[in-house]
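Lab manual, section 2.4: Encoding a predicted structure.

Procedure: take the sequence of the chain (252 residues), apply the prediction step described in section 2.3, and record the output as structure tokens. A sample record is shown.
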Amino acid sequence: MRVAVAGGTGAVGRHVVRELERTGQDAVVLSRSSGVDLTTGDGLVERLKGCDAIIDVSNRMALREKAAVEFFGTVTRNLLDAGERAGVRHLVALSIVGLDKVDTGYYKGKRRQEELVGGGSLPWTILRATQFHEFAEPLLDQARGPFVVVPRMLSRPVATVDVAARLVELVGRPGGFVLPIAGPREWRMEEMAKRLAKARGDRKVLIPVTLPGRVGKAMTGGALLPQGPFTEATRTFEEHLADVEARVSSRR
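Recorded output:
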């Protein structure tokens, strides 16, 4: 198959491209470097010609509702329109476990994406995933000064490579909402951040904070966990930490 990957240069997209190539399929990266702008649609139809399917792992960490809804809504509409015009037969979209129970701006943007995909003109599949093993890394990287604010939340973190492999498995046939994917163990985000900081040799002081109102209650109470059957990924957070420690050691 010839599969286009929206967001193919990102954290998940890179793994999707590698998995497509590993399984003998032709990956077409949709990016500005290839002459495509997902937010305007420029170059999209031409790039999609000859593609059998699209895997959408495009992302923008917009925390405000207006920006998130605008981004995911615009990109999804452009993919649906261009995909139909180019003769694409399947759209696979990556989404988030619990997005319908947590009212953050970003999650509302992802809800809009799901609404458009499910009501669009292309046959579709939506895979919801839990938070990635890398979720805590930007918290440490972007912190100014010695203190890091870490939101309290309960999750079942999953490896991006496992998510990518599942997306590629799903590309052959539309399935609507499929079983979500999650990691093999529940973790508290504050503990993940603490273990990650230790693995990196980072001495920043972590400050766990419960987000206010219903959002904080939902995030700490298990709303981000699968609520029924799910596909259990194999890679553990401990394996991710070991990889982090190895990378740190190699740079010394």
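Check your result against the sample. The mean pLDDT is 94.
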